[in-house]
Amino acid sequence: MSASDYIQTKQQIWADNQGIELIGSKGDRGKRMYTNTLNENLFLPMNSTVKQAFDEGDGKEINQEDGFPAKMQALHSSSALAVNVFQYWMDKDISTIAFACGLCNLNNPHPESILFEKKFRIKGIRGNPPNLDVVIENSGESYIKAYGIECKFTEAYSGRGSHGLNKKYLERPDLWETIPNLHEFARSISPNDEVFNHLHPAQLIRHILGLRGFYGKQNYRLLYLWYDTLGEEGYKHKEELDIFTRICKADGVKFHSMTYQELISRLRINYLEEHSEYIKYLSNRYF
Length: 287
Prior knowledge:
Blueprint: H1 3-17, E1 22-23, E2 34-35, H2 48-56, H3 78-86, H4 94-100, E3 111-119, E4 131-138, E5 146-151, H5 180-188, H6 201-215, E6 220-226, H7 232-250, E7 255-259, H8 260-271, H9 276-286
């Protein structure tokens, strides 16, 4: 069984245990991996702020077309997973989830807001700016202005390979100041990436360039939050991630990774009593 099939089967079992009826991507057609309503796929109904963010995003995650289910109604939707993990904390102590993600110290006073699908336009680059899945913004007193989080579920195991980096980014030498190693790596995956099959480094590079331009060259952190699986695909994805992490470290880029399983485990160990319903939902569904 492939890693993607394993994750999807696990999600189908969860839905069956919850008594949730599933439909295909085209209603009666397609693999039954979609809930009838968006709320059935979420721990909490989407609040108006989050809904607006996805309405304005480029991914059209919550748009139904011709009456068929939206992308976020898929059990294996990475956007639904991100909302299930992070929306809960929007009206609570945001430093708790930031700490659990390894982004700051315990009881850090600076995390102020959680944003979804935030766009970071890169100076001199035309076209749609990259959308970052989740951003935790800090107070003005913090040296680190924001924590960016790129969230992945089954994407690394899709078998589609990795898209390369458009050459237009390499035509702007000012974008690469102080990050020579990342610059050299970017050249190797432009215009095509023929090395990476599971990680999508071009996307991560665009996020780094966007965050640098918006918050400053050293005033952000970027977390790659991903879902781990057993087997060769999971192992190779981790190998590719280690390569990219070393390149970022060589340039002093504040990049690190964590699995959803690690995050849920941290939440269970430290906060189960106070946030039991939320953590039990995540554990039963994703752990």
